[in-house]
Amino acid sequence: MVSNVAVSLIGVPTDIGAGHRGARLGPEALRIAGLPEALAARGVDVRDCGNLDGPVNPWSAPVDGYRHLDEVVAWNRLLMQATRRELEAGRLPVMLGGDHCLGVGSITAVADWCRQQGKQLRVLWLDAHSDFNTSAVTPSGNVHGMPVACLCGLGPKVLTHLGQHSPALQPAQVRQIGIRSVDPEEKRLIKQHQVDVYDMRYIDENGMKRTMQAALAGVDANTHLHVSFDVDFLDPQIAPGVGTTVPGGVNYREAQLVMEMIADTGLMGSLDIVELNPLLDHHNRTAELAVDLVESLFGKSTLMRD
To answer: Is the pTM of this model over 0.90?
Structure first.
């Protein structure tokens, strides 16, 4: 279980990498839904670092296959630096997004930190999408579809070389869970780079317990678990407040089991919460569900378990 942990909330209010307006409102929606208070009630030392202040979203067309690349880089650099500061202070950074392009900044910081500390890194990517696109295979140019590829060295140099090492990650360090929407050319890249994907068919056939056991296989006391939680991981019937809904997602009980099994390891060292779009939500219920699930990541359970 996660215990005696010091958490720093880092708001990143931008939809710079997305195709819909609204994810920039996600940090405030999570605060309004009571995230700081919920964690504090669990005995967590919570520090809200406020929001980072980056460039506004110009909502312009793609240039050379990327939309808003300069602004995406600026936001990710700010987040990388903020994440690194909190890690160096011995705190667990929780990124309140914002869209999923921000995973480049947070995970680059975590990867550099793990190298320095001699720890192995395992990234759990909870998402409807693999986010393994490149400019060559995505027509939209939206960078929120590219962060895993960028972290693995596929993408523009300004993102693949954001941190101290490139690539920040090897595909073998990533486990993707809940995937159910992958572009045709993206499928080829995933197969070529042998990304470990537990899609909804795998979950249907094996159940979430066996899925998580497989995704967590090989972690040990020297492992830093980074959880990158895209709210569209959840089925849109329970989590409508996202810009890219894909039916047939993870249900409430499955999602709780995912979070509880991660909490059971006691190894989570950093967290992203992304793609929450309050403009598309109903009475902030998606944000409230996200807070409920994050509580489980920090040890909430029905019974006292050993």
So the answer is: yes
Please check whether residue 205 lies inside any domain of the structure: yes
Task: Please say if 232 is a catalytic residue.
Answer: yes
- Total number of domains in the chain: 1
Domain containing 41 equals: 6-297
Q: Is 100 among the residues known to form the active site?
A: yes
Among residues 222, 217, 224, 220, which one has the least CA distance to residue 198?
Answer: 217
Q: 199 an active-site residue?
A: no
Q: What's the CATH code of the domain at 193?
A: 3.40.800.10
> Which residues are part of a known binding site for Mn(2+)?
100, 127, 129, 131, 230, 232
Cα distance between the two ends of the chain: 9
What is the residue-level pLDDT of the chain in tens, covering all 306 positions?
445 799 999 999 999 999 999 999 999 999 999 999 999 999 999 999 999 999 999 999 999 999 999 999 999 999 999 999 999 999 999 999 999 999 999 999 999 999 999 999 999 999 999 999 999 988 799 999 999 999 999 999 999 999 999 999 999 999 999 999 999 999 999 999 999 999 999 999 999 999 999 999 999 999 999 999 999 999 999 999 999 999 999 999 999 999 999 999 999 999 999 999 999 999 999 999 999 999 999 999 877 765
CA atoms of 94 and 226, how far apart (whole Å) = 10
306 is catalytic: no
Residue 305 lies in a domain: no
Q: For residue 11, what are the contacts with CB-CB under 8 A and spacing of at least 6?
A: 27, 28, 31, 48, 49, 50, 51, 52, 96, 98
